[in-house]
Specification:
Layout lengths: L1 E4 L5 E4 L7 E6 L5 E6 L3 E6 L5 E6 L5 E6 L5 E6 L4 E5 L5 E5 L6 E6 L5 E6 L3 E6 L5 E6 L5 E6 L5 E6 L3 E6 L5 E6 L5 E6 L5 E6 L4 E5 L5 E5 L6 E6 L5 E6 L3 E6 L4 E7 L10 E3 L7 E5 L9 E5 L2 H6 L8 E12 L6 H8 L14 E12 L3 E11 L7 H4 L8 E7 L10 H14 L8 E7 L10 H10 L4 E4 L8 H11 L7 E5 H15 L4 E3 H11 L8 H13 L4 E2 L5 E3 L3 H15 L7 E3 H5 L14 H17 L4 E5 L2 E5 L1 H4 L14 E6 L2 H13 L4 E6 L3 E6 L3 E11 L2 E8 L5 H18 L6 E4 L1 E3 L5 E2 L1 H9 L16 E2 L5 E2 L7 E7 L22 E2 L6 E2 L10 E2 L21 H6 L7 E2 L8 E5 L4 E5 L5 E7 L3
Parallel strand pairs: 1-29, 3-27, 22-36, 30-32, 30-33, 33-34, 34-35
Antiparallel strand pairs: 1-2, 3-4, 4-5, 5-6, 7-8, 8-9, 9-10, 11-12, 12-13, 13-14, 15-16, 16-17, 17-18, 19-20, 20-21, 21-22, 23-24, 24-25, 25-26, 28-29, 30-36, 31-32, 37-39, 38-39, 40-42, 41-42, 43-47, 43-48, 44-45, 45-46, 46-47, 49-50, 49-54, 51-52, 53-60, 55-56, 57-58, 58-59
Length: about 950
C-alpha cells in the first residue's frame, strides 16, 4: 500500500503485503482502518494513518472478491471464489461464523445500515439476505439471468439494488424481497451499483464503459456519464455526496462533481484497476481521502491512497481532466400500416419538401431539430430531435419493436383515403408503442402519442367526429391532427405539437467528453454523406485525418463511440470483418424483399432457400438495391444474421437444402379450424399475436419432441414422440391481444401434456408483453361433459380437503385434478369417497345411484367428457371417436352392481400386482387386487369396512 499526495504525486508511505491483485477495499466507519481482499485469498486489515498491517485473516480457499465493515466497525464480512461468506471479529481477527448456501462464487457482500442483516450475491444469480447474528438465510432475491456482480443497501435500509451480467439493474424491497424496479438501458454486464448518501440517486457502471444515474424513487434514467474506454468496475459516492468516483479497466479513475456532472479529475497510471477488480468502497467516511487498489507506476501491487482537496477540485478542473459536453436526444417515430403516407409526411416535417413516394421499404431517419440551451447560467446543453419513419409492412412488425424503444413522441398515421376502415392498424401500433416502452420498465422516458390523418387533400376522413374522438380517447392519443404533405396543410401545427410534447427536463441527459462528441459528430456526418459500408479501421483513419487539433491516438475512444452511436440506431457494427454499416436501413429493405420472396412460394410454407438469398436470387426493388455486388453480398449475410437473431426467421435443414422459414407467412393461406369444444388450458397474452403464434407453430414442429400433424390458419396439431396427440388453437381476442387454447386426446400421456404446456408457456413468457400472460385451466365433468365455471370449482375447493372430515362418520372426500390425477387438497364436484359397512369377504366396488346434478357418477377432469369429437379427424367437421378414458367409470353387471374398470389403475398407478396407499393411520391403508375388468380389493385392517363410491350431496 502506498499513500500519495494528490497534488504532487509524491509517495508519502508505502504499505505492502498482498501477493496478488487487490480485488476489494473498504474503509472502517471511523476511517481509521482499511480492509482489503485479493487474489492471494487473504483479508488484511491496515492502519490507515501509519500504514501498518494489523491483521491477516486467513480461511478463504479462493480469491477474496469483496470485503465489508459492519456499521459499528466491530465485524468484517468477506466473500469470494469459495462460495462462502465469512464473518470476522475485526479486533481479534477471529472467524466467528460461515454463511453457506450459495452454489457459485461470490462477487459482493454488504451490511445493512443497522448492522442486523447481510447481503451476498454471485454466480448463482441470487441475492441472499442473511441474519448477521445467527447466520440464518432469510430471503432469496431471484430475477437476474446472469451472475450478480454487485448488491448494495440504500442509506435508509429500505431497498437493495443489484447489478448483474444480464445488463439489468434491479431494485428490491429489503423487508419482503419484492421487486420494485427493473432498470434497463446498459448494453453490457452491470458490474457495480452504489446509492447516493441521501438515497435519491442510484449509480451503476457496466461493461459498455458508461455510468448511469437513476432516480431511486421512480426508476427513471436521469443521466449517462461517458468518458471511460473500458468496462466500469466500481462506482462509489463520497460521504457528503459532492463527488462520485468511478474505476475502469481502461486504467483510469475518474472523479465526477455531482452539482454539474462534469469530470473534475482523471487519475491515470497510478492505482489503476486490476483485471478482475469489482468492489471498491473508495471514499473514507467523513474525510476527502480516496483508497484505490492496483499497482503503482512501478508495477508494485497494493493500494493507493489520495488526500484530496475537494474545494480545489470543484473550483477548477485538474489539468488531466477532459472538458465535458452535455447533450440529450429525443426520438419521434412515424408509424402506421403500409401505404398510409408516412414517408411523404416525414420529408415535409424534416424540412426537405414534398416528395411523391411509394411504400417505404426501409426506415428513414431525419434530424427534426437541433438546439443549444443554456442552463444554470453557464451550462450549455445540446438538444437533438430525430424523426424516424418506420416501414409498415406486416413482415416488419416484429423487427420494428426494436426501433420503438426510448420513444418520446409517437405519431400513428392513418390514410384519409380509406373508404373501408381508416383506423385499421391503429390499435396495433398504439399497443406496439406501449409494449416497446414496457420493455424498458421504469427507465423509459415519458411517451406522448398523437393520431395523425394523412393525405387529407384527397378528401375528408370517412369517419364521424364521434368515431374519431372515440379512437383518440380509447387509445390514449393526446391530440388528433389532419394533414396533407402535398399541400402542407396541418404540418406546421403538427410540428409545433411535437416540440411541446417532449418533456426535456424528464429526458435522460448525457455527459461526455469533447473528444467523444467530435467522434460522434464525425460518424453521423459520414452517414449523412451516403457512405454505406466500411471497416472500423478505415473510419478511424479518416477521423484522424480530418481532425484539426492533435487528439493523440484516440482509437479506444473511437471504438466506444461507434457503440454509442449504434445504441441510437443510426449505424450498425457487423459481427464479421470489422465492418461498420453506416446505413442500417438497407437491412430493412433487403429483409422486406426476402419476406416477400418467402410469401410468394407456391406451396405456402413461407420459406425460401438460404442459398438463393445469399446469391440475391429474389426480387429486390431497384431503388433500394446496392450496386456494388461485393457490398450486397455482405449486406445479405448481415440481413440473414439479423433475421435469425431477432427470430423473424428460423433456419431449418431439409433434404434439398437449408431453408429460412418465416413464421409470419407459414399459416397465411390455410383454412381456419372451429374452436375445440373440450379445452384443457388457455393462455391469454398481449403482443404481436400472429408472429408469436406462427413462431410457436414452427418451433413445435421442429422441436424434435413434437411432430406436425395438421396445420390450420388458427390451429395446429402435433404428435408427441412420447405419448400421443396435442393441439393448440389461436383466438385473436383483439388487435394486439390473443389467447392460445391447448387441447389433448384421451390417449395423450400426462408427460406429453406437461411438456406441451411448458413449451407453450415458456415461448409466451419470452415473446409476449411482459406480465401479460394469464394461464386459465378448464374443468368439466368427465361423465356428463358439463363445463364447470371457476366459481363452481372454487366453491368445491372451499368446502374442505382430504384431511377434513365431512358430515357423517368416517366420510372423506377426494377428487380428480384437471390433469388426470388425485388432488388431495380439493373437494370433488361429482364424487366422494364414503366408508360404509359391508359383509365380510372380498367386497366389490359398486356404483350407487347417481346424484341429482350428474346423470352418472363422475370425476373432475381437464380433458373433457368421453366419448367426444376428435379434432384430429378433419379440420372442419370432426368425426366422433369413441375411446373411453383409462380413468372413466364403466358400468358392469358383475357382483350385483357396477364396477370401475379403471379403478385399480387410477388408485395404484399400475396395471397389475398390488399397491398400498397410506393415510394418517393404519386403518386407512388398503390394497388393490384383481384384473382390469373387475378390480377386486379389500381393507387390510378393519374387518367389515370397505370403500365405495357414493354421490356427493349437491
Amino acid at each position: 500500500m502506498r499513500v500519495w499526495d494528490a497534488e504532487t504525486g509524491e509517495a508519502l508511505r508505502r504499505l505492502e503485503g498482498h501477493t496478488g491483485y487487490v480485488e476489494s477495499v473498504s474503509w472502517s466507519p471511523d476511517g481509521r482502518l482499511l480492509a482489503s481482499g485479493g487474489m492471494d485469498s487473504v483479508v488484511r486489515v491496515w492502519d490507515a494513518e501509519t500504514g501498518e498491517a494489523l491483521r491477516r485473516l486467513e480461511g478463504h480457499t479462493g480469491y477474496v472478491e469483496s470485503v465489508s465493515w459492519s456499521p459499528d466497525g466491530r465485524l468484517l464480512a468477506s466473500g469470494g471464489m469459495d462460495s462462502v461468506v465469512r464473518v470476522w471479529d475485526a479486533e481479534t481477527g477471529e472467524a466467528l461464523r460461515q454463511l453457506e448456501g450459495h452454489t457459485g462464487y461470490l462477487e459482493s457482500v454488504s451490511w445493512s445500515p443497522d448492522g442486523r442483516l447481510l447481503t451476498s450475491s454471485g454466480d448463482d444469480k441470487v441475492v441472499r439476505v442473511w441474519d448477521a447474528e445467527t447466520g440464518e438465510a432469510l430471503r432469496r432475491l431471484e430475477g437476474h439471468e446472469g451472475c450478480v456482480d454487485s448488491a448494495s443497501w440504500s442509506a435508509d435500509g429500505w431497498s437493495i439494488a443489484s447489478g448483474g451480467r444480464d445488463d439489468v439493474v434491479r431494485v428490491w424491497e429489503a423487508a419482503t424481497g419484492n421487486p420494485l424496479h427493473e432498470l434497463t438501458g446498459h448494453s453490457g454486464d452491470v458490474g457495480t451499483v452504489s446509492w447516493s448518501p441521501g438515497g435519491r440517486i442510484l449509480a451503476s457502471g457496466a461493461d459498455d464503459a458508461s455510468i448511469r444515474l437513476w432516480d431511486a424513487q421512480s426508476g427513471s434514467l436521469l443521466r449517462t456519464l461517458e468518458g471511460h474506454t473500458g468496462p466500469v468496475t466500481s462506482v462509489h459516492w463520497s460521504s457528503d455526496g459532492r463527488m462520485l468516483v468511478s474505476s475502469s479497466m481502461d486504467g483510469t479513475h475518474r472523479l465526477w462533481r455531482t452539482d454539474r456532472w462534469e469530470a473534475a479529475l482523471c487519475l491515470r497510471g497510478v492505482g489503476f484497476a486490476g483485471p478482475f477488480a469489482t468492489d471498491y468502497r473508495a471514499f473514507q467516511a467523513d474525510a476527502p481521502t480516496l483508497a484505490l487498489p492496483g499497482p503503482d507506476q512501478a508495477g508494485r501491487l497494493g493500494i493507493v491512497v489520495y488526500d484530496l482537496d475537494v474545494d480545489v477540485l470543484l473550483a477548477r478542473a485538474a489539468d488531466s481532466a477532459p472538458s465535458s459536453v452535455h447533450y440529450t436526444n429525443a426520438k419521434v417515430v412515424l408509424v402506421g400500416d403500409t401505404g398510409v403516407g408516412k414517408t411523404g409526411l416525414g420529408y415535409v416535417l424534416a424540412g426537405e419538401g414534398y416528395r411523391k413516394t411509394d411504400s417505404t421499404q426501409k426506415r428513414n431517419v431525419w434530424t427534426f431539430a437541433l438546439d443549444e440551451i443554456e442552463e444554470e447560467g453557464t451550462l450549455l446543453e445540446t438538444r437533438e430531435t430525430l424523426l424516424w419513419d418506420l416501414p409498415g409492412q406486416p413482415g416488419y412488425r416484429l423487427v420494428n419493436q426494436l426501433s420503438l424503444r426510448e420513444v418520446a413522441v409517437g405519431l400513428v398515421v392513418i390514410d384519409a383515403r380509406s373508404e373501408t376502415d381508416p383506423f385499421a392498424g391503429v390499435a396495433y401500433w398504439a399497443k406496439a408503442l406501449d409494449r416497446a416502452r414496457a420493455t424498458l420498465g421504469s427507465a423509459a422516458p415519458p411517451l406522448t402519442t398523437h393520431l395523425v390523418a394523412a393525405r387529407m387533400d384527397r378528401g375528408g376522413l370517412a369517419a364521424s367526429p364521434a368515431r374519431i374522438d372515440q379512437e383518440r380517447k380509447g387509445h390514449g392519443f393526446a391530440e388528433y391532427f389532419e394533414t396533407s404533405a402535398m399541400e402542407g396543410d396541418g404540418v406546421e401545427g403538427l410540428a409545433e405539437a411535437i416540440g411541446r410534447s417532449i418533456d426535456w427536463d424528464a429526458m435522460p441527459k448525457v455527459t461526455s467528453t469533447e473528444l467523444f462528441r467530435r467522434i460522434q459528430t464525425f460518424l453521423v456526418a459520414r452517414k449523412a454523406a451516403g457512405q454505406i459500408l466500411c471497416t472500423e479501421e478505415e473510419l478511424y483513419r479518416a477521423f484522424v485525418e480530418s481532425s484539426d487539433d492533435d487528439a493523440g491516438d484516440p482509437q479506444r475512444e473511437f471504438g466506444i463511440c461507434i457503440g454509442l452511436v449504434e445504441g441510437r440506431g443510426l449505424i450498425k457494427r457487423l459481427s464479421f470483418g470489422g465492418l461498420v454499416l453506416l446505413q442500417p436501413e438497407y437491412l430493412d429493405a433487403y429483409a422486406s424483399s426476402i419476406v416477400n420472396a418467402a410469401r410468394a412460394e407456391p406451396d405456402g410454407m413461407g420459406c425460401v432457400l438460404e442459398e438463393d438469398v445469399q446469391r440475391g436470387g429474389f426480387d429486390i426493388p431497384s431503388d433500394v438495391r446496392v450496386d456494388d455486388a461485393e457490398q450486397e453480398k455482405l449486406l445479405l449475410a448481415a440481413t440473414i444474421e439479423g433475421l435469425l437473431q431477432h427470430e423473424a426467421a428460423l433456419r431449418e435443414h431439409a433434404d434439398d437444402g437449408t431453408y429460412l422459414v418465416f413464421p409470419s407467412e407459414l399459416t397465411r393461406e390455410r383454412p381456419t379450424m372451429r374452436a375445440p369444444e373440450h379445452r384443457a388450458l388457455t393462455f391469454a397474452f398481449d403482443g404481436p399475436v400472429d408472429n408469436i403464434y406462427a413462431a410457436l407453430a414452427v418451433r413445435l414442429a421442429h422441436s424434435g419432441v413434437f411432430a406436425a400433424h395438421e396445420m390450420w390458419q388458427n390451429a395446429a396439431t402435433y404428435r408427441a414422440s412420447h405419448g400421443g396427440p396435442c393441439g393448440m388453437y389461436l383466438d385473436e381476442t383483439d388487435e394486439g391481444s390473443g389467447a392460445i387454447t391447448l387441447f389433448f386426446e384421451d390417449t395423450t400421456s400426462e408427460a406429453a401434456q406437461l411438456d406441451f404446456e411448458k413449451y407453450v408457456e415458456r415461448h409466451l413468457e419470452a415473446r409476449a408483453l411482459r406480465d401479460t400472460v394469464v394461464r386459465t385451466r378448464h374443468y368439466a365433468c368427465a361423465a356428463c361433459g358439463v363445463a364447470l365455471t371457476d366459481q363452481q370449482v372454487e366453491a368445491n375447493r372451499a368446502r374442505g380437503s382430504v384431511s377434513t372430515r365431512a358430515r357423517g362418520a368416517g366420510r372423506r372426500s377426494r377428487c380428480w385434478t384437471a390433469r388426470n390425477g388425485w388432488n388431495r387438497n380439493t373437494r370433488p364436484a361429482c364424487l366422494r369417497w364414503t366408508r360404509r359397512p359391508v359383509s365380510r369377504g372380498t367386497p366389490q366396488p359398486t356404483w350407487p345411484r347417481p346424484s341429482a346434478r350428474c346423470s352418472r357418477s363422475a370425476s373432475v377432469t381437464g380433458s373433457g367428457p368421453m366419448p367426444r369429437p376428435s379434432p384430429w379427424s378433419s379440420p372442419t367437421s370432426p368425426t366422433p371417436r369413441t375411446r373411453a378414458s383409462a380413468r372413466e367409470m364403466k358400468p358392469s353387471t358383475r357382483s350385483g352392481g357396477t364396477t370401475c374398470s379403471g379403478m385399480r389403475r387410477s388408485l395404484s398407478g399400475t396395471r397389475g400386482g398390488s399397491s398400498r396407499r397410506r393415510g394418517t393411520g393404519s386403518s386407512r391403508r388398503f390394497a388393490l387386487r384383481g384384473t382390469r375388468s373387475a378390480s377386486r380389493w379389500r381393507r387390510t385392517t378393519t374387518p367389515g369396512m370397505a370403500w365405495r363410491y357414493a354421490p356427493a350431496s349437491m
